[in-house]
Write a structure and sequence with these properties.
Mean pLDDT: 96
Number of strands: 5
CATH architecture: 2-Layer Sandwich
Number of helices: 3
Bound molecules: 2'-deoxyguanosine-5'-monophosphate
Structural class: alpha+beta
CATH class: Alpha Beta
Radius of gyration: 14 Å
Strand order of the largest sheet: 1-2-3-5-4
Distance between the termini: 37 Å
Low-confidence stretches: none
Number of domains: 1
Helix content: 10-25%
Shape: globular
Largest sheet: 5 strands, antiparallel
């Protein structure tokens, strides 16, 4: 069983967060350090440390995460202009919290996907 995370405490409301959606599979809340006018994290209620830990049985959960992101984007009024969904995985992916999360960002043009470095 993976360890509880800071996000587990948000799910059970042990620590405060601006929760915008919650159901039996997923929770969505505003990022504490927003990088765009809308920046919401969508997470599974069960701790899955990284996207690399997904199992076949998690397919309904990952599907729900994407559908919830889509619905929140519509509710926030950013869907027509477009938005970005990001999942960071482990060290090179820049993952800080080892509880799988989908970043939903939008509300302004987000620019190129990555800052390019010499030699890629
Ligand atoms: P990542 O680098 O992909 O692991 O992103 C982690 C994100 O989680 C980062 O954008 C900041 C956010 N975050 C970390 N701790 C908290 C918290 O306690 N509350 C909220 N709302 N967001 C948090």
């Amino acid at each position: 069983m993976p360890e509880e995370t800071i996000f587990s405490k948000i799910i059970c409301k042990e620590i405060p967060a601006d929760i915008v959606y919650q159901d039996e599979l997923v929770t969505a809340f505003r990022d504490i350090n927003p990088q765009a006018p809308t920046h919401v994290l969508i997470i599974p209620n069960r701790v899955i440390p990284t996207v690399d830990d997904l199992e076949e049985a998690d397919e309904p959960t990952i599907g729900r995460m994407v559908r919830v992101a889509m619905t929140i984007a519509r509710d926030e009024g950013i869907a027509d202009d477009g938005y970005r969904l990001i999942v960071n995985c482990r060290e090179h992916g820049g993952q800080e919290v080892y509880h799988l999360h989908l970043h939903l960002m939008g509300g302004r043009p987000l620019g190129p996907m990555l800052l390019r470095k010499d030699g890629l």
